[in-house]
């Protein structure tokens, strides 16, 4: 497993962690790959989107090149250690004429931290329709970057959000990094794209989209109840993640990420999201349930 090059940018780091090593010599009925963690002094736990993206890349390595991932359903089982490597085991469940199915597990210390099933399909034609892109959304160039919002705040988390992410994320509505929202609605929209160009590999773009999908998906739940990421004592963790890729996409072009939360109960919140390119094409959809726990007595909006 190669080390990250010196002076690597956050995007270089993303490409590095998605470049898995083949550990084919292992005695197992699974295809085995090894990938790095993403050491970060601000975040000792592995970022869930990273493990999702790596697992998708591992599974993609076991199918024929013309078959692209079109759906994935996964569960986060244990917190991961960002300073330790990750082993990925891929089971080849089925290879049909048009579809392939794979089960992938991510392991650390011999225990699974993520389990998912993904389906892959050869290009095909058929019926076409989609939910239209919201109208009247400001262009990403008119919105502040995370660096604009957070770069002047002398706090390690703010600095990490401002400069250490491989994606440019621009909130259409006021952000909730450190301030509670004024409007308590269970919807939001953000523009996202990588900080630089990506290789022309559709499997890599789809895995990278899974990576970024985990950043802001639970924010509609927080917005609805007047919470920010800086709410004292709040604990948030992704529980599961499902994703569907509908059309070819590029994560190095702007994508509008629209999300809403239909329900929160039992210390869990559910969010749905949709990704549109600038031409208005719906390229992917996502759903996630997360655990959200608050200290007793925390004021929230019902």
From TrEMBL:
<comment type="similarity">
    <text>Belongs to the C/M/P thioester hydrolase family.</text>
</comment>
<keyword id="KW-0378">Hydrolase</keyword>
<feature type="domain" description="Acyl-CoA thioesterase-like N-terminal HotDog">
    <location>
        <begin position="37"/>
        <end position="121"/>
    </location>
</feature>
<dbReference type="InterPro" id="IPR042171">
    <property type="entry name" value="Acyl-CoA_hotdog"/>
</dbReference>
<dbReference type="InterPro" id="IPR049449">
    <property type="entry name" value="TesB_ACOT8-like_N"/>
</dbReference>
<dbReference type="Pfam" id="PF13622">
    <property type="entry name" value="4HBT_3"/>
</dbReference>
<feature type="domain" description="Acyl-CoA thioesterase 2 C-terminal">
    <location>
        <begin position="184"/>
        <end position="291"/>
    </location>
</feature>
<dbReference type="InterPro" id="IPR003703">
    <property type="entry name" value="Acyl_CoA_thio"/>
</dbReference>
<dbReference type="InterPro" id="IPR029069">
    <property type="entry name" value="HotDog_dom_sf"/>
</dbReference>
<dbReference type="Pfam" id="PF02551">
    <property type="entry name" value="Acyl_CoA_thio"/>
</dbReference>
<dbReference type="InterPro" id="IPR025652">
    <property type="entry name" value="TesB_C"/>
</dbReference>
<protein>
    <submittedName>
        <fullName>Acyl-CoA thioesterase II</fullName>
    </submittedName>
</protein>
């Amino acid at each position: 497993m190669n080390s990250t090059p010196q002076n690597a940018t956050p995007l270089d780091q993303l490409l590095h962690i998605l470049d898995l090593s083949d550990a084919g010599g292992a005695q197992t009925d699974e295809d085995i790959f090894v990938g790095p963690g993403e050491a970060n002094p601000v975040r000792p736990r592995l970022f869930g989107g990273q493990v999702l993206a790596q697992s998708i890349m591992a599974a993609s390595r076991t199918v024929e090149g013309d078959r692209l991932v079109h759906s994935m359903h996964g569960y986060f089982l244990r917190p991961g250690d960002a300073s330790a490597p990750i082993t990925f085991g891929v089971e080849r469940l089925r290879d049909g004429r048009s579809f392939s199915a794979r089960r992938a597990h991510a392991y650390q210390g011999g225990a699974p931290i993520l389990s998912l099933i993904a389906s892959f399909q050869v290009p095909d034609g058929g019926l076409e329709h989609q939910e239209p892109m919201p109208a009247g959304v400001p262009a990403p160039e008119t919105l502040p970057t995370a660096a604009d919002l957070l770069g002047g705040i002398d706090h390690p988390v703010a600095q990490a959000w401002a400069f250490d992410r491989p994606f440019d994320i621009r909130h259409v509505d006021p952000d909730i990094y450190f301030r509670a929202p004024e409007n308590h609605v269970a919807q939001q929209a953000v523009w996202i794209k990588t900080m630089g160009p990506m290789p022309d590999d559709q499997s890599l773009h789809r895995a990278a989209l899974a990576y970024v999908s985990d950043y802001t998906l639970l924010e509609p739940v927080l917005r609805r109840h007047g919470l920010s990421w800086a709410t004292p004592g709040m604990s948030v963790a992704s529980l599961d993640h499902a994703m569907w890729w509908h059309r070819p996409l590029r994560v190095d072009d702007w994508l509008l990420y629209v999300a809403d939360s239909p329900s929160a109960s039992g210390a869990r919140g559910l969010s749905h999201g949709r990704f549109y390119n600038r031409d208005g094409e719906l390229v992917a959809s996502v759903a996630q349930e997360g655990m959200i726990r608050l200290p007793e007595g925390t004021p929230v909006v019902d």
